[in-house]
């Protein structure tokens, strides 16, 4: 609710005119609590003015570090001017979003996006290379029937991929089903958050 600040203005004379509005002020319907003040003024021909509550200004800023519950570094935000002036700016956590700064942020964002595309494309190329190999042969000492001694592990898959393609793969991104018999299997190699390569292996008894 607007703050009830009263101001008595003398009734206009023939040489004066009343403007319909004032800068930052406006005449309005008075609440009951103000009527007692307004009554004497109305009788005297004065005009009661009520000031609008001051609008809180905001500032466009760019964060220079991650702030919990607010945003991440490089993010463009609109915050209260007082919050920026009293906290974000003095602590070096944000800068005013100037045209030059916004241009710099866009260039960096474009560079990062291009680098991410490059990494993903490389992962896709490796996945196609694995697919072109067909089956990777893994040899294990045979047991009775189709059984093999031990099992095929992620490290076994990493070793055979390196031997046949020259590619080094982290065994932590290799998912191997339980393999205790000769036969053909498919393991998964997570080359990228969005690229999972199915790798076919052929377990052979020796």
UniProtKB/TrEMBL annotation:
Gene Ontology terms, MF aspect: mRNA binding; rRNA binding; structural constituent of ribosome
Which SUPFAM superfamilies does this chain map to?
Answer: L9 N-domain-like, Ribosomal protein L9 C-domain
**One GO location term (cellular component):** ribosome
One Pfam family per UniProt: Ribosomal_L9_C
Give the matching InterPro entries.
Ribosomal_bL9, Ribosomal_bL9/RNase_H1_N, Ribosomal_bL9_bac/chp, Ribosomal_bL9_C, Ribosomal_bL9_C_sf, Ribosomal_bL9_N, Ribosomal_bL9_N_sf
The record's comment on protein family reads: Belongs to the bacterial ribosomal protein bL9 family.
UniProt-recorded name of the protein? Large ribosomal subunit protein bL9c
Origin organism is: Marchantia polymorpha
């Amino acid at each position: 609710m607007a703050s009830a600040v009263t101001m008595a203005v003398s009734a206009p004379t023939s040489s004066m005119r009343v403007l319909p509005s004032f800068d930052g002020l406006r005449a309005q319907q008075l609440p009951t609590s103000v009527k007692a003040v307004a009554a004497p003024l109305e009788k005297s021909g004065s005009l009661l003015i009520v000031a609008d509550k001051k609008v809180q200004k905001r500032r466009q800023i760019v964060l220079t570090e991650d702030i919990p519950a607010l945003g991440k570094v490089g993010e463009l935000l609109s915050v209260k001017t007082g919050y920026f002036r009293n906290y974000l700016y003095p602590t070096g956590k944000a800068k005013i979003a100037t045209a030059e700064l916004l241009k710099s942020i866009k260039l960096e964002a474009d560079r990062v996006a291009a680098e991410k595309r490059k990494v993903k494309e490389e992962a896709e190329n490796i996945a196609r290379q694995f697919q072109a190999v067909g089956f990777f042969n893994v040899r294990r000492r045979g047991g009775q029937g189709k059984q093999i001694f031990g099992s095929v592990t992620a490290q076994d898959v990493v070793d055979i991929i390196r031997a046949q393609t020259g590619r080094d793969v982290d065994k932590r991104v290799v998912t191997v089903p339980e393999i205790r018999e000769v036969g053909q299997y498919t393991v998964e190699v997570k080359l990228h958050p969005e690229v999972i390569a199915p790798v076919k292996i052929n377990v052979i008894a020796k």
